[in-house]
Amino acid sequence: xxxxxxxxxxxxxxxxxxxxxxxxxxxxxxxxxxxxxxxxxxxxxxxxxxxxxxxxxxxxxxxxxxxxxxxxxxxxxxxxxxxxxxxxxxxxxxxxxxxxxxxxxxxxxxxxxxxxxxxxxxxxxxxxxxxxxxxxxxxxxxxxxxxxxxxxxxxxxxxxxxxxxxxxxxxxxxxxxxxxxxxxxxxxxxxxxxxxxxxxxxxxxxxxxxxxxxxxxxxxxxxxxxxxxxxxxxxxxx
Length: 238
Description:
- It is built from eight helices and nine strands.
- The protein is α/β, with parallel strands linked by helices.
- It folds into two domains: 2-93 and 207-237, Rossmann fold (3-Layer(aba) Sandwich); 99-203, 2-Layer Sandwich (Dihydrodipicolinate Reductase, domain 2), CATH 3.30.360.10.
- A five-stranded mixed beta sheet has the order 5-6-4-7-8. Strands 1-2-3-9 form a four-stranded parallel beta sheet, with helices on both faces.
């Protein structure tokens, strides 16, 4: 993702002041310093879930805006808010900054509402990612499942683990598969006895995620507070 973000930044004529890599393999530094932050307008972070809060502390202390595409840490959102309350930086986060994925979310939202009067249509989903992905299900899968629950009253609970029983009517089962080099496939099925409606977003590469993150960084300029990627997309759509 770092290489993809770097490519998009250069294409859009931005200046890269530093590439932070804790292993210092492909980066220009192994940590964010006050000197580095003073030369930058925004940090674009794709890291590990355990690093999100410590990094947020740094951004807050150094007065540096941030766009964060790291997933797997959302249970700590209240802690994040406490950290950012101390500063006036702009901070945008999300499970998927791909513009195509965000449009897919809107389509799934509409589809979940459309099937509300038709109980014969059950809703389920699955996602497939490369063998190196560390979280399962993906943050995007969680976002999709939350959208469905908010827009279809028949589903009350998300189930992501293996089931050795029949799924209950009010349960939304969202499965995960890992292997190969697949950037990401997310599918939602609206299934009845008579037919199936299949909605799928397939990422061909990581370029879409990188472009969305850079566009969000541009949008965040001059703002303060916490924003989700949805805030960014909704602003564009309006």
